[in-house]
Amino acid sequence: MDGKAEVASSTWQDDLYDLLRRHRVTQFAYVPDAGHRRLIDRSLADPEVRSVALTTEEEGVALAAGADLGGARAVLLMQSSGAGNCINMLSLMKGGRFPLLTLISMRGEFGEGNPWQFPMGQATAPVLEAMGLIVLRAERPEEVIPTVTAAATMVFQGGQSVAVLLTQKLIGAKAF
Amino acid sequence: MTTQNPGAAMARVAAPGYVLDRREAVPALIGRHEDFLIVTGLAGTSKDLAALTDDGAHVYTMAGAMGGACMIGLGLALARPDRRVLVLTGDGELLMNVGALATISVLNPPNLSIVCVDNGHYGETGYQKSHTSLGVDLERMAAGAGIKTTRTVSTGAEIADAARVLREGNGTAFVLLRVTPSDPPAYRRNMDPAACRVRFKAALA
To answer: What is the dihedral of CA B3, B4, B5, B11, to 10 degrees?
Structure first.
């Protein structure tokens, strides 16, 4: 990632955090991930939210259901490899009609150099769709805020489960 | 519900130290169930609580998404710090996502208590032995995860102290309740997860 792209990325990431807070998201759940670093750091520094580090991503799906039962809103931040860890737990969202907003930093696609990342990266959208999620993609910095705004409305007003894929074209391929 | 394996009775041998009957021990440990918002695991613990509360709206019973009960409880406890949240789950359900104990311990919400009804078996699928019949100690795993208040209840005399711990609120509490591998109450609860969600939220509103 060159210097220019990093500046752009930190800008949309701060806007994204503010957007989630305006939508009254108070539980930020994640397995630590470079692609979501800014959101995670902001949630840790924000006394008005709970920042929940998970041991595996499916915990975050169940956490979001519990938040909803109590009238709160959660977001699940994960990498595409984590989507695979969630599949059966998504039964809870589909069967229970729980809302779920998840933001997924993609690996195993545009410009990927690590062969281990391709199987799950390429399968992320199809397996999430198979479990009833609506999948949206953001390819460019200027698409992030409109896309997540749309997703938040679909989730918190429309009652849907929506994944926003923050693509590798957007966040840059990791150098090895 | 899945019918039980006809050969199950032969396989059902309580591990040493597993003497309590869940039909008596679970109600005795929980006491006034109305004091809690409750999330249960699958099968046995769902039936325990549905029977105890007459399928109460303050209980979210699961029948799938195995491994989710503790984390639903965490999300609920963080969302409603004004209420006490109780997770009642089984040894098999907890083992499927035992890392949740680590996640919960780091947050340590004072209004969350977890009871694991440990019968040492996978009751719903025909009473095959679980890991806890074979040497795995879930109280020690909870303590190892960093949960500071933990208890194991193996006798009736230990129930009162554990019941107090569930209500104490000095941090998340974990109680391992060892019971014989006998059937939970045969209660037909509402198994529609969406209807139960709506019911639960309406009762809380």
So the answer is: 170
